[in-house]
Design a protein that fits this description.
The structure holds two protein chains of two kinds. Chain A folds into two domains: about 140 residues, D-Maltodextrin-Binding Protein, domain 2 (3-Layer(aba) Sandwich); about 200 residues, Periplasmic binding protein-like II (D-Maltodextrin-Binding Protein, domain 2). Helix content of chain A is about 50%, strand content about 15%. The relative contact order of chain A is 0.15. Chain A contains 18 helices and 14 strands. Chain A is globular. Chain A is an alpha+beta fold. In chain A, strand 1, helix 2 and strand 2 form a beta-alpha-beta unit. By secondary structure, chain B is an all-alpha fold. Chain B has a single domain, classed as Orthogonal Bundle (MetI-like fold). Chain B has twelve helices and no strands. The radius of gyration of chain B is 25 Å and the shape is flat. Classes of the chains: A alpha+beta, B mainly alpha. The interface between A and B is large, with 44 and 44 residues.
Chain lengths: ~425, ~290
């Protein structure tokens, strides 16, 4: 018995031998991106070789576990020098408010704003808190984007050729004509993960911006324009038009984005609506897939299409870090053209640095070309109430399956909006 | 005779029908349990090109290289050893502490006995994510973050409640005569626990071992929270590496899962007899 206790204690004491804390010339970076880990490790090695500063890249995945770790580390005041905040903007704001995030504006503005100008403006907007922001955070830029994102449409070159279509459609009418031509040769027109409501929301938002413009969309969110208005009915009718036979993949409103990606990769549909990450996914599922990127075809040619996009992943610097200057220097290096090109080539992500576009795979460059036409709910001055958004997205799904008409959906969504507004008052 | 003549009576038909029904049901249950395992092994032998296109049950070409890739790229060597250390230490710790505590709650009379017991039982109600922040803060203050010891302590703590409850129920049914006999033979409290209670509780301990071994083997959330150093991480972390933010390398992931399932499957098969006994025959002790 005594022997067992002694052995157990021995094992526990042996296991308790921890490692000492890292020395000061070592920066610690915590991230959640499993697919980018090898590239980040390689860049850390290069940085150590160039500067003598060791960057310890630590991966904690999946993202929800990473978020838990960040929150726990913040409470214990042991955040690393560089980390990412994956939560909503209000959580980001609370981290800043509690002094866990350094204001990087002085570094961005230095040398006539050279560092700031190297990024796509939309990428920085997610990390920017403007004057008079609703979170009452002092104005500034608090994060560094390492890549950008946007959601567009994809077309299968071979299937379009099979239907005799020479180029991808530019207008919605052209798109519908192309889909009819595809239907004639037995090809399904369009697939997307509309089983995930945010995908439907994103598609509808694109057309809302194109049909009525940003100001009217914001006016709707403020309660000044009804969902039963002519403009919104036009948006809803896009889905009714697309519900015609042969246009949408079967069961589209039950498909997850993964299912939709699989369908497009296996050439079961000619068009898809997906984010830039699909390049990585298609590359894995079907490396021979011949496809191109296109903006969703416009309905209103007088107004440019606005798509969802912005910063992909961003890092922040720990305000209490003794290595703050070194951490900023590393992030500056990481977002320079050479490193951004390497990251993009190695991980098939869109670089945050404009200058890196020239040296990345063409399909990624096509995605990134329209970054100036991106927008995102996180940077809008107003956001719709989640209940109204949910009612709208469910309504759109109902239109697609022919359960409801655009008028019915508009009335239902407006009823939810009125209820929400009344509650607010 | 009636059967031989081919003229079955009602009861024989009923028996046959009942047997057929039960066996069909059990066969369906067995298939639903085994099919995901089969699918995992099948997918682990395919390539990324064929996994979404090839719908055959047995792939045309078998890619055993996925296992090599999973082992090498997923750093399974070190993670595997870590998982074995964690599972063995945590399960031993739980059995040791839980059996002592359960014996005390069951057989000793001391003030606050029920209170402390219910506190342990209540601890089962707290979901793991709910305790993340306080656990991390406490471990950090104790200097046990990023140590094997810290992780083992937390995992022991997680498994104690259920194990104490299970063993106490078992010890409650132990005949007092057995203790009296041991006492006459010169055993003290610890002696009775070691020589009488523990051997009798073998089926319950088997259940505790398998449940906790399964928990520890499959755990990665707490490990990701408490450990920084990749060389301290358990096996499940290696599997996570194959799940990209947007894309997943399914064949290698499935190969990794197959590797990770084998040890726990072996533990289950080795202890199967005791587990079934422990789950079904807790009523009679001694």
């Amino acid at each position: 018995m005594k022997k067992i206790v002694i052995i157990l204690l021995g094992v526990l004491i042996f296991c308790g031998c921890g490692k000492p804390r890292e020395p000061l010339n070592t920066i610690t970076l915590w991230h959640w991106m499993t697919d980018r880990d090898p590239a980040l490790q390689e860049l850390a090695r290069r940085y150590a070789k160039q500067t003598g500063v060791k960057v310890q890249v630590e991966l904690y995945a999946p993202s929800d576990t990473y978020t838990q770790r960040i929150i726990a580390a913040a409470q214990a005041r042991v955040l690393p020098d560089i980390y990412g905040i994956l939560d909503k903007k209000e959580i980001f704001a609370s981290f800043i408010d509690n002094g866990f995030v350094a204001d990087l504006s002085p570094y961005f503005k230095k040398d006539n704003g050279a560092w700031e100008k190297s990024f796509f403006a939309q990428a920085l907007d997610v990390n920017r808190f403007p004057q008079g922001n609703i979170y009452k955070i002092p104005p500034g830029i608090y994060g560094v984007p390492i890549d950008v994102t946007n959601i567009q449409m994809l077309y299968n070159k071979n299937l379009l050729k099979k239907a005799g279509i020479a180029r991808p459609p530019l207008t919605f009418d052209e798109f519908m004509a192309d889909v009819a031509a595809l239907h004639r040769v037995g090809v399904t027109g369009f697939v997307s993960g509309w089983g995930e409501m945010w995908m439907v929301d994103c598609f509808a938002s694109n057309y809302a911006f194109n049909i009525m413009g940003e100001e009217k969309v914001m006016a709707t969110f403020r309660g000044e324009l009804a969902y039963t208005s002519g403009e919104w009915l036009k948006v809803l009718r896009v889905f009714q038009t697309m519900a015609a036979p042969g246009v949408l993949a079967e069961g589209i409103v039950t498909k997850t984005n993964k299912d939709a990606e699989q369908a497009f990769a296996l050439e079961r549909a000619a068009f898809a609506f997906n984010g830039y990450w699909c390049v990585n996914v298609y590359n894995q599922m079907n490396p021979k897939l011949a496809y191109g990127v296109m903006m969703p075809p416009v309905i209103n040619s007088e107004r440019p299409m606005k798509i969802w996009g912005g910063a992909g992943s961003s890092f922040v610097v720990n305000n209490h870090s003794p290595n703050k200057e070194q951490a900023v220097a590393f992030l500056k290096w990481l977002t320079a053209k050479e490193q951004q090109t390497f990251l993009s080539q190695a991980t098939l992500n869109l670089p945050a640095n404009r200058a890196a576009l020239s040296d990345i795979p063409p399909v990624l460059a096509d995605f990134a070309k329209v970054m100036d036409q991106t927008t995102h709910p996180t940077i809008w001055p107003y956001n719709e109430h989640p209940l109204v958004t949910e009612a709208l997205d469910r309504g759109l799904q109902s239109i697609v399956i022919g359960e409801k008409t655009p008028q019915q959906v508009a009335q239902e969504v407006q009823a939810v909006k009125v209820r929400v507004m009344a509650k607010k008052k | 005779m009636a059967k031989l003549n081919g003229n079955w009576n009602y009861y024989q038909w009923a028996d046959c029908g009942k047997g057929f029904g039960i066996h069909s049901f059990l066969l369906i249950v067995a298939l639903t349990c085994l099919f995901p395992l089969f699918w995992m092994v099948r997918s682990s032998l395919m390539s990324m090109d064929t996994i979404f296109a090839d719908t055959a049950l047995i792939p045309a070409r078998l890619h055993f290289a996925n296992y090599v890739q999973a082992w090498v790229d997923g750093h399974f060597g070190i993670y595997f050893i870590n998982s074995v250390i964690y599972t063995a230490s945590v399960v031993s710790g739980i059995v040791f502490i839980a059996s002592l505590a359960a014996y005390a709650f069951s057989r000793l009379r001391f003030p606050g006995r029920n209170f402390f017991f219910y506190v342990f039982v209540l601890a089962m109600m707290i979901p793991l994510p709910g305790s993340f922040v306080p656990l991390y803060v406490m471990m950090n203050k104790l200097g046990l973050v990023n140590t094997r010891f810290g992780y083992i302590l937390c995992m022991i703590n997680l498994g104690l409640s259920m194990s104490i409850l299970l063993l106490k129920t078992f010890f409650d049914k132990m005949l007092p005569d057995l203790e009296d006999a041991a006492r006459l033979d010169g055993c003290g409290r610890l002696g009775i626990w070691w020589y009488v209670a523990l051997p009798l509780a073998r089926p319950a301990i088997a259940v505790i071992v398998i449940f906790n071994a399964l928990n520890v083997w499959n755990e990665y959330i707490l490990a990701q929270l408490l450990l920084n150093d990749p060389s301290l991480m358990p096996l499940q972390r290696g599997i996570m590496l194959f799940q990209g933010v947007y894309s997943v390398n399914y064949p290698v992931l499935m190969a990794g899962l197959t590797i990770s399932v084998i040890p726990i499957l072996l533990v289950y098969l080795l202890m199967q007899k005791h587990i079934v006994k422990g789950l079904s025959s807790g009523a009679i002790v001694g």
